[in-house]
Amino acid sequence: MAQLKQEIAHLPRFSPERLRIEARKEQRKARLLTLFIYTFLIVASLPIILGYGWLVLNSFSETLAYGVLPKGWTIKNFRFLWELPSRYYPDLWRTTWNTLLLAVGMTIIMILVATPTAYVISRMKFPGRNMMLAMTLILHSFPGVTLLISLYYVLRSLGLLNSIVGVFLVKAGLMLPLGIWIMKGFFDNISWDVEMSGLVDGATRMQTLYKIILPQVKPGIAAMAIFSFINGWSEYIYVITFIQKKESWTLSSYVNSIIGDFQFIDYGLLSATALFYILPVLLFFIFTQKYLMTVTVGGTKG
Amino acid sequence: MAAVVLKNITKAFGSVVAVDNISLEIPDGQVTALLGPSGCGKTTTLLMLAGIYQPTRGEIFFDEVMVNGIPPKLRNVGLVFQSYALYPHMTVFENIAFPLKLKKVPKDEIRQRVQDIAKVVQIDDLLQRKPAQISGGQQQRVALCRALVKNPDLLLLDEPLSNLDARLRIETRAEIKRIQQELGITTILVTHDQVEAVTMADQVAVMRNGVIQQYSSPEDLLLKPANMFVASFMGDPPMNLMEAELSSENGKSVFRCGSELKIPVPDAIAAALQSRRDREFILGVRPENLELLDEPHELAVPGTVFMVELLGRDKLVDFRFGEVALRALVPADVAVSQGEKKWIRPQAHRIHLFGKADRQAVPLAG
Prior knowledge:
Distance between the termini of chain A: 48 Å
Radius of gyration of chain A: 28 Å
Distance between the termini of chain B: 37 Å
Number of strands of chain B: 20
Oligomer: heterodimer
CATH class of the largest domain in chain B: Alpha Beta
Low-confidence stretches of chain B: none
Largest interface: A-B, 25 and 36 residues
Shape of chain A: flat
Order of helices and strands of chain B: EEEHEEHEHHHEHEHEEHHEEEHEEEEEEE
Mean pLDDT of chain B: 91
CATH architecture of the largest domain in chain B: 3-Layer(aba) Sandwich
Helix content of chain A: over 70%
CATH superfamily of the largest domain in chain A: MetI-like
Low-confidence stretches of chain A: 295-302
Number of domains of chain B: 2
Strand content of chain B: 25-35%
Mean pLDDT of chain A: 85
CATH topology of the largest domain in chain A: MetI-like fold
CATH superfamily of the largest domain in chain B: P-loop containing nucleotide triphosphate hydrolases
CATH class of the largest domain in chain A: Mainly Alpha
Structural class of chain B: alpha+beta
Largest sheet of chain A: 2 strands, antiparallel
Number of domains of chain A: 2
Largest sheet of chain B: 6 strands, mixed
Number of helices of chain A: 11
């Protein structure tokens, strides 16, 4: 750089040589920047890549050399799929079913409750509307952990301890504000003109909602549904706290018990179950990410 | 088709009065424009006619039937929004067919009617596209089709041309006018563009702050403005407006405008003003009503050209008299250059006077 600078110092402002050297300087700068960006991104994503790489390799290896390096190829870590690892564990498929129930339940309740609520909040004026908006936001910003003990008592008095329904209700209550906020944003983005247009074209308010508004917030509903499914699938803290009975376990309690219940941790088994736990979410995400990414294709202005 | 009457309509949003006690009679089968700057209440009026808003006070009649409280779906009006408000998830065909589907028109008839109306505005080859895949001008025509396909009694257009580029605007303007005349449909056009209002409408209501300033034919708006707002809002380039004091000099009456400009008063105006007490007015004369003469004339004012602007077919010649500016519009081929001395003669019957206090037009003979 410094050398180049010296070289061009004596050249007139717009001479061809000078412009050529300046252009070379710019190219060099751009290349350096690209290099820097790549280095930064690689370093930043290294922990994630290494972590998951280790998980996958380890689930297929017999032992760990030096406590960390996977060694020896086997699938015996996956034997939990067809037999109980020990009598302490509930049936894997039943546990998976419970997890699925929680995830799907969350998805359905979010769609059925958050969507209409968000529509009303976005489109209608009623007393207490602003207060409601503020409250949902505040409620959502409380850390859920602070409610653990009181929720435990509430669930116990309702007889919902040790049941998926209990966890489902708690989760739904805490997730709905977020879902409502997300959906409200989507409804806010639809212009009033389009809705008025529906009314003038001869639709009732309900028809306008079903035929014109909802189709346009589909990506929002999809995003929220996926989000709720993943959130329900990976729920940990409430499941661990409110469910002791093994028949009601979900996969997160299952993995948790592998870490906690043994004298020494069977890393092979742990990795294999963890992989089993992650895989559906991963597949689900790969198939649905197009909905998460899409933003409405607007058609109101040219 | 329907004649529309608004009787003492007021619309308030909370404490903000958007439309203030307006009354209008809109004749059957013609185009009526609501013209005014943004925020004057013209769109609110339109939405009240569509039934989206309910008036706070007053009554709306369609063919002598009061329609207050009747929902939009029963009013049979077609509305074209400024934003077009097409349904982005539907194809062009589905967009246009939507009003008919809601009316449960048989499928074959829907297809026929959509194709017929699409042919009229030449979008019949776009029916399978989505709104996002067609141009702004095409979207505009789709919106027009959707409004027309149900044979509405009343067509409402909210700034239908303002999102189009200049050339397309002229084409579409003529197109809408042609369709309107073909169908003979009562049309109400909301616009802030005076050219649009004047070219398309049979009569124009100029609005400001929720009040109608003048309701008349386009010609009368330009030739007989009812007050100073209409005078300054209409016309391009804008009317010359200046404070003028009626006084007499050497036995002849003149308007004193500022310290340096004295405009001789034509006899007809002097006679008309004789009965009035007030001596102070706002004088208005349009640039195109100022004649430039090379020789002195008893009704002309001498002036030196300050600046000349070429506006295509015309030249705008700017004179300064102290703080008062006077602009004259002459054909582009008239030779006039900066610093030249000219005599400026206002056409006597094109001088407008407005009361200084109330800003209302002073009636002058002729």
